[in-house]
Amino acid sequence: MYSVPLHVALNDGNFIPVLGFGTTVPEKVPKDEVIKATKIAIDAGFRHFDSAYLYKIEEEVGQAIRSKITDGTVKREDIFYTSKLWSTFHRPELVRTCLEMTLKKTQLDYVDLYIIHFPMSLQPGDEFFPQDEHGKVLADTVDLCDTWEAMEKCKDAGLAKSIGVSNFNRRQLEMILNKPGLKYKPVCNQVECHLYLNQSKMLDYCKSKDITLVAYCTLGSSRDKKWVDQNSPVLLEDPVLCAMAKKYKKTPALIALRYLLQRGIVVLARSFNEKRIKENMQVFEFQLASEDMKVLDGLDRNLRYNTAFFFGEHPNQPFTDEY
To answer: Which residues make up the binding site for substrate (predicted)?
Structure first.
């Protein structure tokens, strides 16, 4: 019998809930829906909220969390809040500035996890994606080991309980792990991971280094035209997955999430639909047989929905390596 714990220990001794609520918002969703969905998620039992400076909704997520603390539903220490350092703040002197802006927006005293959003540095300024006159994205030359030292200082200052990375490949992770004078190693690598991109090599590598793999795009993708190739297959319509859903009398989404949880991955699920938000909590109520896990392993096709093409020809593009 394989039961999934509700929390797993990070390598710094803190604990992360294995099921998180993702807060990236498709443009068609109004911001007040973010407040509503976050409150519904807390009422449904979610305690882990994944956000980022880039998402431009931290005020709304913070407002929802604070209202649920005020009404007595949760205490601050019940909530695990993740935010991310954006690429225009990689210079060491800017790292804390970005985190402090997040804390101001959310009106929280600390984040539970602060991660480097992408290993690709961009030139500082007011634009998220600074460009030259020809529309070419302006990369910045920053040693990510220096960025990491500034992240360590944020942890020492108590502004972030844990620190990690996102979208790093093995080589980029090793650069941090082999850094002379490393004080804290990353607690996690948050990557795209789902049935079509099961990240088995990255997962094995992270486990060998006591780094937790956190998965985003777990149900495929919201197919936002701005980020995703519209010709890519729809994961939740996969015939094998749908047959498995019938067998277990669960939704395809629940099977897709449970598959990742049983592999020891921390899972982010995103929805702005009340029924689906509540339904996602059912992932702890059943388990997949080992032979069905093997069948689902076979769906991997190394398909990436988030190719980070919006960074252009960035020299630090992580997805050109095998993993």
So the answer is: 117
* Token pair belonging to 267: 């899972």
pLDDT digits (tens, 9 = 90+) for 298-311: 999 999 998 888 88
Helix, strand, coil abundance in the chain, percent, nearest 5? 40, 15, 45
The string of pLDDT tens digits covering residues 210-238 is 999 999 999 986 666 666 777 888 999 99
As a three-state string, the secondary structure of 46-81 is: CCEEECCHHHCCHHHHHHHHHHHHHCCCCCHHHCEE
DSSP per residue, 216-238: ESTTS----TTTS-TTS--GGG-
User: Around Cβ 157, how many Cβ atoms within 10 Å?
Assistant: 11
pLDDT tens-digit profile of 133-170? 998 999 999 999 999 999 999 999 999 999 999 999 99
Rounded to an integer, what distance in angstroms lies between the CA atom of residue 111 and that of residue 197? 29
117 is in an annotated binding site: yes
Closest CA to 55 of 85, 78, 80, 79: 85
Pairing verdict, β 7-9 and 15-17: antiparallel
Among 53, 47, 105, CA closest to 80: 47
Q: Which residues are catalytic?
A: 55
CA–CA distance, 271 with 253 (Å, rounded to integer): 11
Could you give all domains of the chain from N- to C-terminal order, each with its CATH number?
13-304 (3.20.20.100)
